[in-house]
Task: structure prediction
Amino acid sequence: MKALETNEINIRFGCFLPIPAVPVKKLLRIAKANEEAGFDSIWVPDHLLFIPPGTVPEAWSMLAATAMTTEKAVLGTCVTDPHRYHPAVLAQKVATVDQISGGRAALGLGAGEAMNLDPFGIEWKKPVSKLIEFVTIIRKLWSGEILNHEGDFFRLKDAFLQINPVKGRVPIYFGANSPRTLKLTGEMADGWLSIPLSPRLYEARLRLVKEGAEKAGRSIEDIDTGVYLYTSVTEKTEDSYTQIEKIKSQVIPSPELLRQAGYNIEMPKELQAISYFKALYNSEWIQKFLSYGELIPTEASIEFSIAGTTEDCVNKIEEFIKAGVKHFLLINVGPDPRQVMKAYGEEIIPYFKDK
Result:
């Protein structure tokens, strides 16, 4: 395998716990096994509902339990939103997990998804403005400040917390996808959690993060640039490709991304504007995504994922590193998940850590 030209980058590997496919108690065993395999971080989605169907535990309870079964891995959400929590309530939850874990918590935040909000009557007007105010309040509360705040969304009077993060703050990652939120990530976040993208699209979006960082007098080097990607490792390349092909509409969650990647596929009118972020948990939306998935070329889904033999995966990871990725959050979809974890633990992660 060809070595990377740049050996000084601290590349980290994280894993998503397989929610909603696996019962809660088994998730704790999987978290421990992944940490032992060498993964640096463990992430859970913060959802009320989830597509595909299955068991969806409350995120911060899950992370608190995971903190008790792990020792080193960073524990985070990908991602929470500012609509289902008051900022003080979430600040307390995160600080508690941080204390339980000995300072290993991370908070992923995004603008919100319809399936977690619309069925429950939770408003999400002006989500980006709300996100900015939300983060500002959380950081002040974590600092120990007694806070008086009159904002557009929240009002606090003589408010403070009686628990704080171990180091006085927890890193906040933005799940940013739009030009505005990408620039905002550079301005005020500690990290970026990108949806699945091709290396070329990742590099283009990273420029906007960098632009925001420079505007705020920051360096892109100070931002943990991450991406979550589906991965399958098999002895034969085509076996991994078959796995990725089964979940194409999750790998590329909107036709717009497909178009941006250069795939000009003719879409029926009812599918042209669909997006996972707008999806509701009902038969109509599920059918739309199934229909959309059938139209996605296999080569496109492979471009947006890490799949194949061990060597194939190393080469693809290097492409993403050259595009600016420092932190890989991986969703294990291999036909044998244990074999995928073993391949990463014994070959892929050491390849990048031992440089």
Observations:
- The radius of gyration is 20 Å.
- The first strand starts at residue 12 and ends at 16.
